[in-house]
Amino acid sequence: MPDIDLVLLRERAQAGDTESQYELGLRYAEGEGVPQSESTAYRWLLRAAEARHAEAMAEVGRCLHDGTGVDVELGRALSWYEQALDAGARSVHADLGRLLIDEQVPARDPERARSVLEDGWELQGDSECAGLLAELFEDVHGDTDAAILWARRAAEAGDDASMVTLGYRHRYGLGLPRDFRAMVAWYERAAERGCATALSNLALCYQKGEGVRADEAKAFTLMERAAAVGHDRARTWIAFAHVDGIGCDRDPVRGRELLEELAPADPEIAHDLADRLIDGPGLERDLRAGLRWMRRAADEGYPPAHTYLGVLHWYGRHVDPDRERALEYYRHAAELGEPYATGNLGFALLEGEGVTQDRTQGFEFIERAGGLGNAHAALWLAERLLSGEEEGLARDEAAAVRVLEACTENEEDGDALFLLAELVRDGRGTPSDPGRALELFTLAGLDGRDTRVEEAVLRRALRIGD
Questions:
Q1: Cβ atoms 258, 241 nearer than 8 A
Q2: Interhelix angle for 93-100 vs 110-124, to 10°?
Q3: N or C end: fewer C-beta atoms under 10 angstroms in the chain?
Q4: Is the pLDDT of residue 25 over 70?
Q5: pLDDT at residue 365 above 70?
Q6: Helix (H), strand (E), coil (C) string for the chain
């Protein structure tokens, strides 16, 4: 028996009733009582939009913006958003503002975006508008204080992304005090609303014991929830959790199955799977499969896969030794900013292994590698800058501090953090700052170093100073 309401709706839409055309378009978009069809939805919404239906204009803009039922055309999307706003659409401020700050849009206009987003906030209290204003002030104007102000407004109004942003700022001390409990509180608020990123971040907090008592079983449960609402990296985490027995019974067979499902679409996962198959731990060694996955990741342009293959050829592990080919892999990965290939090139130049020796260039590559997050390179260089015992490298404590700071901004390595904390505590190469040193020792402790003595001494000193 036909749906009488739907029949009448279609008749009114075909007769030119714009509200019916708009509603019918939404039904096709959702598959509500009709077969779901994005292209059919777009056609009905466009008919209503061309007849000046304000909300249909906004929907047409979204279709053109996202490529839903039609090819992406950002210029046309912008035009429809502007028309929708002029026609009184209530839901379009955030869409228009986002597009006006998009670097891919020729008519990009951050100042116009700011005005539109502020109107959306003032008129409707739209939390998404406030969140976009936070991004605008941070990314375009470089105004961290204003960015945090708007992020707080957005978060308090229910914007999940802003809650996660505030948690992240507390985690890394970006414009807000480094405070793991505050970080967890914001992640929990967003997680309660089903935010996939917040669920994943919160799971990692429970895995590492950051701001909460470590609880791997809870971490696993949270990551399952994140995966269920579409967080791709959560699926990868769960696969490796099965391999390693993190929060669940160890099941390497199931873990490998999950990884092999994910690896074809993601060269990073292919690389990580290959690494486990070649060198472990967790998976039974399978060199043929491991090398196949690693080469596939390299063929797809993943820089760490080039570095890995370079190391294998350099040392002749599982493949024929070939230092010329290894250096080719290193150079390709280094050109893409891969920190370990960059460091390997630096050490080769320093020692003249496989290349003409050039110590000056070698030091430059090693320093660059440290700044990219290669902790081994950063520590090697910092220790020699502190001792002044390396040929061609003068003693320079301030330079050692800079090397370690650049490294730890990209990679929170426990050993690099520990050495930096000691220098900050002792005032070597930088003014002494016990409070900052305590933060650095705390981070080093979270990353595996035993810093209980150092932290206790500093806390006592800070209390006495108060």
A1: no
A2: 160
A3: N
A4: yes
A5: yes
A6: CCCHHHHHHHHHHHCCCHHHHHHHHHHHHHCCCCCCCHHHHHHHHHHHHHCCCHHHHHHHHHHHHHCCCCCCCHHHHHHHHHHHHHCCCCCCHHHHHHHHCCCCCCCCCHHHHHHHHHHHHHHHCCHHHHHHHHHHHHHCCCCHHHHHHHHHHHHHCCCHHHHHHHHHHHHHCCCCCCCHHHHHHHHHHHHHCCCHHHHHHHHHHHHHCCCCCCCHHHHHHHHHHHHHCCCHHHHHHHHHHHHHCCCCCCCHHHHHHHHHHHHHHCHHHHHHHHHHHHHCCCCCCCHHHHHHHHHHHHHCCCHHHHHHHHHHHHHCCCCCCCHHHHHHHHHHHHHCCCHHHHHHHHHHHHHCCCCCCCHHHHHHHHHHHHHCCCHHHHHHHHHHHHHCCCCCCCCCHHHHHHHHHHHHHHCCCHHHHHHHHHHHHHCCCCCCCHHHHHHHHHHHHHCCCCCHHHHHHHHHHHHHHC
Q: Rounded distance, CA 444 to CA 108, Å?
A: 43
The CA angle 298-341-351, to the nearest 5 degrees, is 140
Say whether pLDDT at 1 is over 60: no
Look up tokens 């229910």; give the residue: 158
Residues 455/438, Cβ–Cβ less than 8 Å: yes
Which pLDDT score, from 0 to 100, does residue 437 have?
Answer: 96
Question: How far is the C-alpha of 20 from the C-alpha of 9, rounded, in Å?
Answer: 6
| Summary mean pLDDT of the chain | 95
pTM of the model: 0.83
Check residue 464 and give its pLDDT. 78
Cβ-based neighbours of 242, under 8 Å, separated by 6 or more: 248, 250, 251, 252, 254, 255, 258
The contacts of residue 419 (CB under 8 Å, 6+ apart) are: 379, 382, 383, 404
Q: How far apart are CA 199 and CA 189, in angstroms?
A: 10
Contact assessment for residue 128 and residue 154, using Cβ atoms and an 8 Å cutoff:
yes
How sure is the predictor about 4, in pLDDT bands with cuts at 50, 70 and 90?
Answer: low
If we measure between CA atoms, which residue out of 208, 160, 207 comes closest to residue 187? Answer: 160
Residue 73: count other Cβ atoms within 10 Å of its Cβ.
14
What CA–CA distance (Å, rounded) separates 82 from 133?
18
Calpha distance 362→285 (Å, rounded): 35
Cα gap 414→385, rounded to integer Å: 19
In angstroms, the Cα distances linking 277 to 105, 262, 274, 319 are 44, 15, 5, 15
